[in-house]
Amino acid sequence: MKIIHVVGARPNFMKIAPILEAIERHNEQKVNPKFESLLVHTGQHYDQAMSQSFFEDLGLPRPDLNLEIGSGSHAEQTGKIMIAFEKVLQEERPDMVLVVGDINSTMACTLAAKKLNIPIAHVEAGLRSGDMTMPEEINRKVTDAVADLLFTTDLGANANLKGEGIPEHQIFFVGNVMIDTLLKHRERASRSLVLETLGLKEEQQVKPYGVLTLHRPSNVDCFDTLHEILQAVRTLSDVLPIIFPCHPRTAAQIESFGLQSYVGTSIKDGDRIVLVPPFGYLDFLQLHAHAKLMLTDSGGIQEEATILGVPCLTLRENTERPITIFQGTNRLVGTRRESILMGFESAMEENGDPVRTPEKWDGRAAERITAVLSEIEKGKMVGLRMTEKGQNNGKPHKTFG
User: Fold this and answer.
1) Which of 63, 293, 356, 385 has the most crowded CB, counting CB atoms within 10 A?
2) Which is the catalytic residue, given 26, 215, 227, 397?
3) 215 is catalytic
């Protein structure tokens, strides 16, 4: 079975890495079927610090193809990816396209493949925020509506998909591939010197600190919202200094809104909110693992905080990952100053309850995905088997029937 794996942004790299590794381990065994993998990078994120360093940290192979799409409006970016990826599909004629997450590349490549009758596997299916103003929510719902195989991270996602009419036999609860990557690289990350470099560790003692990440347009493109968040963070930074690895868009908005006075450059100089460039995967994991608090609008960081046992304040009104609240360390605090500070006080009063690990967040999600793909290719899975149907440039399509 020839599978094209699609990545386009940093969270995708963390999700695709364990899948490629699991497929490679499967191929090394004396079993059939074998899989041929082709890695396609759409180039949705193209900055060196935002992209290439993650490939190096995660040991990902160089992409077989880079579409070099770059930035643009949602429609422009989606259209460019579809046009470029359709040509790849016609040239490579895969048996399946595997997409992860919820970015524009996920949806665009899904639509391009589906219109050529090529089966789609979606990893991290079924997550729902219920907020259709989020581009990611649109991408999730469109992708899941047409995908053939839907791999989920928790049973809540299964319920969402069934509620939207997805047949149960197409849904597979496999666990969380992001956590596969975290657990694999945690020991390597512990050798990072990022804490010493930032002045957060002296004589083997780590000083208390928090970490802030912001990238969502709803938080950084509106002056009032960004100002309100920074006011809250300034207040709580009197208690806990904050390291702020800053997305390039966020840094540009802070400057354009004239909010530079809220951030500094060094703990050693007495700054309480320290703005730094984005880190690679290992450095950021080490920073996250030792933090007393995370403040974020990211989805993946909510999940990582759950496994690391770090209290997390999510600066949004909703989350597509409610399991991180029910079973993890996450709190939804919105973007108002008062609610953020209330959440901070509650997080600091936590009594160290044991961390509960969600079911199947055990480092084996990618292995389960590979097992499902293998069973389908062998035709053993009832209701889902690869069959030849139709033609694409002279090659019969394989589809599920």
Assistant:
1) 293
2) 215
3) yes
